[in-house]
Specification:
Layout (H helix, E strand, L loop, with lengths): L1 H7 L17 H15 L1 H21 L6 H16 L1 H10 L7 H5 L6 H29 L10 H7 L4 H22 L2 H7 L4 H14 L1 H20 L5 H19 L4
Length: 261
């Protein structure tokens, strides 16, 4: 009888997670723990990294002869990268108790909170589309040269000195959008994988983490940017290792920043 009545009642909303304050140097601890997890489960982790690197190569290839498409697509790819890391987050969660990770469960990680995870993925895709359109507008407003190819990008834009305004607008708008998406994503994906919260609650929790820990989060963002740049500089090969390393580390960032329920 009680069970029948319970089935007719709406579910009790989950309380928003509590946010912790962490030390400035904690991002280096996250990287150390991420490297440990990667060493313990290299197979699937590096497999995810290989897929991410391949996607990066495909994006550069697709925009090779376009004026703005290659840098816009590649930069936008960073906006949706947290979604690719979901399987890696689950691997780290399986490693926490000391038991071996189960690859099949890790591949199905998104199903634990499928609706919210899918909505978060849609938010990232929309951010990607917005960035691509903004990049196109910026190039249309500031670039008046011949059609620009990826192979001529450094010489034409960086060395000629003719397009300072374009570069300033491009990086300013890109940095602003990236900062917003990063602030909304610091703990969102691992939180959705780990707990049955909705997307809005998860993103607001991420913003609260940033507000309470501005300096550690800024350091974390800088470390991600530097390591990702190294991955790009190695013609994407470095991403095979760097991406899963950062994904494992991001799981530990979430575990430190968001209190247990």
């Amino acid at each position: 009888m009680d069970q029948t009545l319970d089935r007719g009642r709406p579910p009790i909303p989950l309380r928003p997670p509590e946010v912790r304050e962490v030390a400035l140097t904690q991002p280096f601890v996250w990287l150390r723990l991420g490297a440990r997890d990667l060493a313990r489960e290299p197979g699937m982790s590096l497999g995810v990294g290989a897929v991410v690197a391949m996607v990066g190569v495909l994006l550069v290839t697709a925009g090779w002869n376009a004026s703005y498409a290659a840098p816009a697509l590649l930069g936008g790819f960073l906006l949706v990268a947290p979604f690719f890391a979901i399987a890696v987050y689950r691997l780290s969660s399986r490693l926490e108790p000391g038991a071996g990770a189960e690859s099949a469960q890790a591949r199905r990680a998104w199903r634990t909170n499928a609706g919210s995870v899918a909505l978060y993925g849609l938010v990232l895709v929309l951010a990607y589309v917005v960035w691509e359109r903004l990049a196109a507008i910026i190039f249309a407003l500031f670039y008046d040269g011949a059609p620009l190819q990826w192979s001529r990008l450094p010489q034409e834009l960086l060395l000629s000195g003719r397009y300072g305004a374009l570069l300033l607008a491009y990086f300013a708008v890109g940095a602003l959008l990236a900062a917003v998406v990063f602030a909304l994503s610091v703990v969102t994906a691992p939180l959705l994988v780990d707990r049955p919260h909705d997307t809005i609650t998860a993103m607001l929790t991420s913003l609260r983490c940033c507000a309470r820990n501005p300096r550690p989060v800024l350091l974390w963002a800088a470390l991600i940017a530097v390591l990702t740049a190294i991955g790009f500089a190695t013609l994407m090969l470095g991403l095979v290792f760097i991406f899963p390393w950062l994904a494992h580390a991001s799981w530990h960032a979430y575990r430190d920043l968001v209190a247990e329920t």
